[in-house]
C-alpha cells in the first residue's frame, strides 16, 4: 500500500511547494506528470471501493492540484487538453456483466457519463498522447478542439494563421468569459442543430453565468461531448488463440484493429457483436525503404498479442521511396437516440495502409443524414454521453 501511494505523496508535496509562476514543476529527477497521472489512475482503479460513485471523489484532491498548476480543465477523470486522446482509455481486462453506470444496484450505480473511465469497474489504462502532430483528429461541431461544457470555465480561442505552423510565432490565448451573450449564442446553436436547451440540460445557459467554487469538483452545463468525426460500423470478434478482441471492418484486411470492450460482449446475442466506432486521432508513420523488411515479426507477435506496442515516431533518413502507413486509436460506441451515442470500449490500430485508413474513415449511413449533420470531409456531428 505504501508503494502504491508513493507517487501520490510525491506529487502532492511537489504541487504544494511555493514556486515562482515561471518555475518548472518537474525537476530533472521527478516523474513526468503524464506517467504520474497514468499511474495514479491505475492504482486507484485497482482498489475495490464499496460504492462505485466514490471513484472520482478519491482522485479529486490530486486532480485539483494538477489542474491549477497545468491550467487545463478537468472533468469526470479526464483532462481537456488533447481530449481526443484522453477519451481512448481502456479497461485492462474487461469483465462480464452489466455496465456499472447503467446499473440500478446501490453499490454499482453512478451518475457518470460513459466517456469517463469512472463509469466502469476494473483496472484502467490511460491512453498515451498519440503525437504532437496528428495527421487526423476529431473536432467539435464548430471545427474546434474537443472541450468540456463546464460552468464557470474560461474558454480559450487561439489565434489562427495561414502560415505553416512551424514558422508561425506562438500567439497568446484570448480568454472568453462565461458571459450571457456567449451562452445565448451557444443556446441558439443547439436549437439550430435540433436540440433544445432542456434536452442538453442547458436552460441555465441563457440566464447568464453561474459562479462556481473552484475548490469543488467541476460542474457541467451538459456532460455530453460534441464531436464531429467519421462514425463507422463493424463487428466484434474474439481471437481465442491470442486472447484478444478484434474489430472487423469491411475492406480492412491488411491490419488488425485490436478492440478493448469495457465489458465482455454477450456474443450469443448477435446485436452485441455489432458496434459503431469512431477514430479519434491518427497519424502518418513514414518509414524509410530500409525499414520495410518483409517477414519481420511485429511487437504484437513478440508479446503474444495481448496489447499493442506504444506508437512511436519514425525518422526519415532519406534515400529511395518512403513508405507511409497509419496508426491511431478510437472508441467503440452504441447508438442511443437523436444523434447521441454511448461509449462501449476502445480500439487501436497500426501499420494500416492508406486504403484501410480510408475505410476506417467512412461514415455509416451518411446518405441518410442531413447536410447540417454530415460533412464528407469532417464526418458526422454527434453527442457522446
Automatic annotation (TrEMBL):
Residues 167-214 are annotated as: Disordered. This is Uncharacterized protein. PANTHER family: DOMAIN PROTEIN, PUTATIVE-RELATED (PTHR33112), TOL (PTHR33112:SF10). It comes from the Eukaryota. Residues 183-203 have a biased composition (Basic and acidic residues).
Amino acid at each position: 500500500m505504501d508503494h502504491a501511494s508513493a507517487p501520490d505523496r510525491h506529487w502532492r508535496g511537489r504541487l504544494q511547494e511555493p514556486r515562482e509562476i515561471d518555475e518548472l514543476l518537474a525537476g530533472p529527477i521527478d516523474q513526468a506528470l503524464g506517467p504520474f497521472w497514468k499511474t495514479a489512475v491505475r492504482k486507484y482503479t485497482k482498489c475495490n471501493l464499496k460504492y462505485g460513485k466514490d471513484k472520482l471523489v478519491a482522485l479529486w484532491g490530486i486532480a485539483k492540484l494538477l489542474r491549477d498548476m497545468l491550467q487545463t480543465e478537468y472533468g469526470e477523470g479526464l483532462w481537456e487538453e488533447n481530449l481526443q486522446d484522453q477519451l481512448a482509455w481502456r479497461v485492462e481486462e474487461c469483465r462480464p456483466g452489466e455496465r456499472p453506470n447503467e446499473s440500478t444496484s446501490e453499490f454499482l450505480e453512478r451518475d457518470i457519463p460513459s466517456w469517463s473511465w469512472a463509469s466502469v469497474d476494473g483496472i484502467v489504462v490511460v491512453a498515451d498522447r498519440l503525437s504532437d502532430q496528428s495527421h487526423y483528429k476529431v473536432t467539435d461541431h464548430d471545427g474546434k478542439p474537443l472541450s468540456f461544457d463546464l460552468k464557470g470555465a474560461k474558454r480559450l480561442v487561439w489565434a489562427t494563421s495561414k502560415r505553416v505552423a512551424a514558422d508561425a510565432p506562438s500567439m497568446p490565448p484570448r480568454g472568453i468569459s462565461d458571459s450571457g451573450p456567449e451562452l445565448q449564442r451557444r443556446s441558439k446553436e443547439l436549437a439550430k442543430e435540433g436540440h433544445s436547451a432542456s434536452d442538453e440540460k442547458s436552460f441555465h445557459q441563457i440566464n447568464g453565468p453561474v459562479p462556481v467554487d473552484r475548490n469543488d469538483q467541476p460542474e457541467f452545463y451538459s456532460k455530453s461531448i460534441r464531436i464531429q468525426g467519421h462514425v463507422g460500423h463493424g463487428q466484434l470478434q474474439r481471437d481465442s488463440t491470442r486472447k484478444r478482441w478484434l474489430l472487423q471492418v469491411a475492406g480492412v484486411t491488411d491490419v488488425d484493429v485490436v478492440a478493448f470492450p469495457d465489458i465482455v460482449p454477450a456474443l450469443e446475442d448477435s446485436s452485441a457483436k455489432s458496434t459503431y466506432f469512431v477514430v479519434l486521432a491518427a497519424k502518418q508513420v513514414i518509414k524509410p525503404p530500409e525499414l520495410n523488411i518483409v517477414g519481420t515479426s511485429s511487437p504484437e507477435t513478440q508479446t503474444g498479442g495481448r496489447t499493442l506496442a506504444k506508437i512511436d515516431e519514425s525518422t526519415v533518413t532519406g534515400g529511395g521511396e518512403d513508405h507511409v502507413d497509419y496508426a491511431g486509436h478510437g472508441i467503440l460506441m452504441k447508438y442511443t437516440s437523436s444523434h447521441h451515442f454511448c461509449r462501449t470500449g476502445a480500439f487501436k490500430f497500426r501499420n494500416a495502409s492508406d486504403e484501410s485508413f480510408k475505410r476506417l474513415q467512412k461514415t455509416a449511413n451518411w446518405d441518410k443524414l442531413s447536410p447540417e449533420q454530415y460533412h464528407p470531409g469532417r464526418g458526422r456531428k454527434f453527442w457522446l454521453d
